[in-house]
Amino acid sequence: MTAVADRAGVALxxxxxxVGRKPExxxxxxxxxxxxxxxxxxxxxxxxxxxIQAALDAKTKIxxxxxxxxxxxxxxALVLGIIQQAAAEPELAxxxxxxxxxxxxxxxxxxxxxxxxxxLRLDPGQAADIVWATNSAELYQLLVGxxxxxxQRYEQFLADTWQRLLLAD
Length: 169
Hints:
Layout: H1 2-8, H2 12-19, H3 22-35, H4 47-54, H5 58-85, H6 90-115, H7 124-134, H8 137-146, H9 151-166
Helix pairs in contact: 1-2, 3-5, 4-5, 5-6, 5-8, 5-9, 6-7, 7-9
């Protein structure tokens, strides 16, 4: 927190007054990384979520979500790296768990929405777990950051993977 205050050129008390303690700052970083703006936006109000819900077929829903994840993942990879390094602190470990559970709930909603327009290959719980695991910033970092994939290739990989694994023939 001292480093944040120093970098911002303000007193440490100013940082605490503006955003709170370290867990609140971490939450704000995560929320803004997801939204791509300077403020948190609830999931149901995000443009891509509304576009997914409005799409009439499963392949379009999947393509929209793959594009959204490809845009979000680079921002999240940076933030999650910081949180993982600090995860020894119980409050930050709890935040990381909370974010993972919230992601899982969002994946269940996404899969339920898919199931309204197409039959699924798997039961909804398994399908949601697959989306949860494959839309992680860690996978993006492995494939794009370490293996040299382009973001476009990663986006196509997600869309193809989800279509093949989630949708019945």
